[in-house]
Design goal:
The complex is a heterodimer of chains A (about 120) and B (about 350). Chain A has about 120 residues and is an alpha+beta fold. Chain A has four helices and nine strands; from the N terminus they run βββαβββββααβα. The longest helix of chain A has 8 residues. Chain B has three domains: about 120 residues, Probable tRNA modification gtpase trme, domain 1 (Gyrase A, domain 2, 2-Layer Sandwich); about 90 residues, Aminomethyltransferase beta-barrel domains (Alpha-Beta Plaits); about 70 residues, Aminomethyltransferase beta-barrel domains (Elongation Factor Tu (Ef-tu), domain 3, Beta Barrel), CATH 2.40.30. In chain B, the strands form four sheets. Chain B has a six-stranded mixed sheet. The two termini of chain B are about 40 Å apart.
């Protein structure tokens, strides 16, 4: 699949869509493929602070559990409630499914993330 | 693909959930050629098998198979296996790939006192293909010249599958009706493709190690290396049904008899998660902040749509309905002991 070019990526296979000081965060198609069938997504509460590079939650598939790392720092403004009942949405539409939205404390952090070309290069 | 006991094996083809559901509702195809085969033959072959196997092989007719433990003198598991009676004095043991070499060494050594019997590691002579699920019979039947319909569960026959000489066994590791087909390795691709072709109408799909694991766990079948090993006895693993008390002596018997008399202190139980989350292999079962047990297998099962698992717990926590506390990555979660198997197929007419 073609990876969207309007978002930034991390080496840990998260994406972040930044607009001003607001950001949506999700995981990439590569990440969902590696995980396989997702059964639980554990997310932080609204109001919590997340820090770039640190875990903000976890995602569990039939075969494995892995942590979710925040691409950028900020305060959680919304959590995708749909994932509580329909976690498989992450498999079906990884780039259309944000997990949390964040009010960024430092939008300049985006500069250190990968653009789509760099991310696709990472996947090889 | 992942490396597994020297084999490259697919974890999944189309996805664990899709493959799991195919086996429960239609049929799935498994390449399990990695399994080891060890044959024991000779005048005293029965005595040899009786000595090393926990189960009573004298109860097997020719053409019949059963599940058994290959036990240490402590009554714990060197491995678990299926014992096939090929002839009066000819048996085949199907063992785990990762243990085949160790098992062969163990068996060669321990059958010596039984008399005239030799064992051969014939693993390289067989590829093994499984077809599992309610549609298995209708998919396999057109390819086979042997009478399959009358073949009972845990019996086998010789015949041809897609014109390849085969041993066809009505067995499996999924809790579903199905067959396991032993063929020469050079016939494996032909048989695999014939089954896929024959299964097209029933939408039969290939299944990997991932679905094999979720299926066997739903059916409460133990996995050696996780649920049973050289530190857990057949009684602790709640497998007394494979202990042939009525036969004579066998390796491990004395220790198991002792355990039966005094009672075991811990037992393998099935559990369902009450709280959200999956308790996986190695997670601690705790009471009052102290670890008192351990999860041996755990997953979210695609068919039952529950998080289930098996754990060793002290016997006072073993009765169904008992609540367990499991440490899931630092979080205290509640699970409930349930009777196994988690899943049992409707019996065939």
């Amino acid at each position: 699949m073609a990876y969207p070019s309007d978002v930034k990526y991390t080496k840990d296979h998260e994406w972040v869509r930044v607009s001003g000081d607001a950001a949506e965060i999700g995981i990439t198609d590569f990440a969902q493929q590696q995980l396989g069938d997702v059964v639980y997504v554990e997310l932080p509460e609204v109001g919590r602070t997340v820090t770039a590079g640190e875990a903000f939650g976890s995602i569990e598939s039939v075969k494995a559990v892995s942590e979710l790392f925040a691409p950028m720092s900020g305060e959680v403004t919304a959590v995708n409630e749909l994932l509580k009942t329909k976690p498989e949405t992450v498999n079906a539409d990884p780039h259309g499914t944000w997990m949390i939205t964040v009010r960024l404390t430092n939008p300049a952090e985006a500069a250190s993330l990968l653009d789509v070309g760099q991310y696709e290069g990472l996947l090889g | 693909m992942v490396p597994f006991a020297g084999w490259d094996m697919p974890v999944e083809y189309s996805g664990i959930t899709a493959e799991h559901m195919a086996v429960r509702t239609r049929a799935g195809l498994f390449d399990v050629s990695h399994m080891g085969e060890i044959e024991i033959a000779g005048k005293d072959a029965l005595a040899a098998v009786q000595r090393i196997s926990s189960n009573d092989a004298s109860r097997l007719a020719i053409g019949q198979a059963h599940y058994a433990g290959l036990l240490t003198p402590d009554g714990t598991f060197v491995d678990d296996m299926l014992v096939y009676r090929i002839g009066t004095s000819h048996f085949m043991l199907v063992v785990n790939a990762s243990n085949a070499t160790k098992d062969y060494a163990w068996i060669s050594e321990h059958i010596k006192p039984a008399g005239e019997a030799a064992c051969v590691d014939s693993s390289s002579r067989y590829a093994l293909i499984g077809i599992q699920g309610p549609a298995s019979l209708e998919v396999l039947r057109p390819l086979v010249n042997a009478p399959l319909d009358e073949l009972k569960y845990y019996w086998f026959t010789h015949g041809e599958v897609a014109n390849a000489r085969a041993l066809i066994s009505r067995t499996g590791y999924t809790g579903e009706d199905g067959f396991e087909i032993f063929v020469p390795p050079n016939m494996a691709v032909r048989v695999w493709q014939a089954l896929l072709q024959s299964g097209r109408a029933a939408d039969v799909i290939p299944c990997g190690l991932g679905a094999r694991d979720t299926l066997r766990l739903e059916a409460s079948m133990r996995l050696h290396g996780q649920d049973i090993d050289a530190s857990t006895s057949a009684l602790e693993a709640d497998l007394e049904w494979i202990v042939g008390w009525k036969k004579g002596d066998f390796i491990g018997r004395a220790r198991l008899a002792e355990q039966k008399a005094t009672g075991v202190t811990r037992k393998l139980v099935g559990f369902e998660m009450v709280d959200r989350g999956i308790a996986r292999h190695g997670y601690p079962v705790v009471r009052g902040g102290t670890q008192i047990g351990v999860v041996t297998s755990g997953t979210q099962t695609p068919f039952l749509k529950k998080a289930i698992g098996m754990a060793y717990v002290p016997v006072d926590l073993a009765p169904p309905g008992t609540e367990l506390t499991i440490d899931v990555r630092g979080r205290s979660t509640t699970a409930r002991v349930v009777s196994m198997p988690f899943y049992k197929r409707a019996t065939r007419a």
